[in-house]
């Protein structure tokens, strides 16, 4: 098994984002879960008087189970603050219990099994799996996603950027013929698309514990000018390599792009737009497979139910509030028109889902917590280095892909093992044995301490500036590693 020559990021470094996470962010996230259950229980309570005795008995049981989950989540908060040992994940019948517990045993032997001594990557994945076990062990809360409401509310606030992008795609429709014969122009559009998809990762809910609606809209500004302004923040930009890789797929039958998804809502929307561009406007890609997480994960990650509801939400005439017409849309574009553009585009996505041009890597109706031999890997605590040994079926599947796009920060942390690489470490080195096994594209806005593929002097200057460039979400990397045959 591959082992990195550097230690992982953990909580011992007091200036790190890891430390800020355990001290500030996790308590906020856990409190959010408690609030969510509390509100649901409150609604159950309000409904009681109108119920029959049989119905009321069921609701009371639901409320009691909800209270139990609240206590369990509260207990983690308490233990964390006191640096207590992490408990074993209970045998709840869902995937990966053994994997998490075996690693916990190993950490206990090294005396690294308390909340402030565990490696950050392991403990954060463990946290979401532990929380999941509280829901799984109930009768009435198994299908409950404690982050769903938050995901949907933020999605609804993203309408401005969504309408603007729908209009951009509509305008592209008119240029379809000319684009087909003009590869230079196609490349220009490709670059806009890939950047739009990259910055779609800037808004994730586990980070947005303190941002306002206006802040979110600002982060989502789309269009050429906004992108040009942001280009300076891409610390390593390998878009050219990606484009030449894509063009090399010319004439290849059944070329498939895989998206290892990150966040639901606006980011998933940008993934769909990029995927749509690839299959509709370029001659290089015939199929796109999207890989979700099978349990509620890092607050905002896409689950199968999120994936399924996304197109329905986008098509619903009432999902987005009326007043959010794009201010930066062309003057002639009315709210009605941009809604129509969105409708046309999303109908096309639905037809792609029906025909298999777009597909989810697991059945689209999978409930939360269903197991899948390939998809389980994404919610394991493992870095991706040893995917071949740890998830051979997934590895074999990705070997067939023409391009694997890994979205977001957590995927980047797992690609690089979340260790303290010197910033100038080549991406190829940091991703260990999976380098060269399938074509990899990492689209990541920086939201954690780990960084690679950035010149040491650039990193040093940024470190000295005092700016929290490693994790404030303002900087990004676009990294490509080709397959070696
Ligand atoms: O909680 C920390 C973290 O893992 C960070 O890496 C990042 O802030 C977030 O969670 C996940 O980000 P993303 O949604 O881009 O994977
Ligand atoms: Mg995420």
UniProtKB/TrEMBL annotation:
<keyword id="KW-0479">Metal-binding</keyword>
<keyword id="KW-0464">Manganese</keyword>
<dbReference type="InterPro" id="IPR039763">
    <property type="entry name" value="ARMT1"/>
</dbReference>
<dbReference type="InterPro" id="IPR002791">
    <property type="entry name" value="ARMT1-like_metal-bd"/>
</dbReference>
<comment type="function">
    <text>Metal-dependent phosphatase that shows phosphatase activity against several substrates, including fructose-1-phosphate and fructose-6-phosphate. Its preference for fructose-1-phosphate, a strong glycating agent that causes DNA damage rather than a canonical yeast metabolite, suggests a damage-control function in hexose phosphate metabolism.</text>
</comment>
<dbReference type="InterPro" id="IPR036075">
    <property type="entry name" value="ARMT-1-like_metal-bd_sf"/>
</dbReference>
<feature type="domain" description="Damage-control phosphatase ARMT1-like metal-binding">
    <location>
        <begin position="22"/>
        <end position="455"/>
    </location>
</feature>
<dbReference type="GO" id="GO:0046872">
    <property type="term" value="F:metal ion binding"/>
</dbReference>
<dbReference type="GO" id="GO:0103026">
    <property type="term" value="F:fructose-1-phosphatase activity"/>
</dbReference>
<comment type="similarity">
    <text>Belongs to the damage-control phosphatase family. Sugar phosphate phosphatase III subfamily.</text>
</comment>
<dbReference type="GO" id="GO:0097023">
    <property type="term" value="F:fructose 6-phosphate aldolase activity"/>
</dbReference>
<protein>
    <recommendedName>
        <fullName>Sugar phosphate phosphatase</fullName>
        <ecNumber>3.1.3.-</ecNumber>
    </recommendedName>
</protein>
<dbReference type="GO" id="GO:0006974">
    <property type="term" value="P:DNA damage response"/>
</dbReference>
<dbReference type="GO" id="GO:0005634">
    <property type="term" value="C:nucleus"/>
</dbReference>
<keyword id="KW-0378">Hydrolase</keyword>
<dbReference type="Pfam" id="PF01937">
    <property type="entry name" value="ARMT1-like_dom"/>
</dbReference>
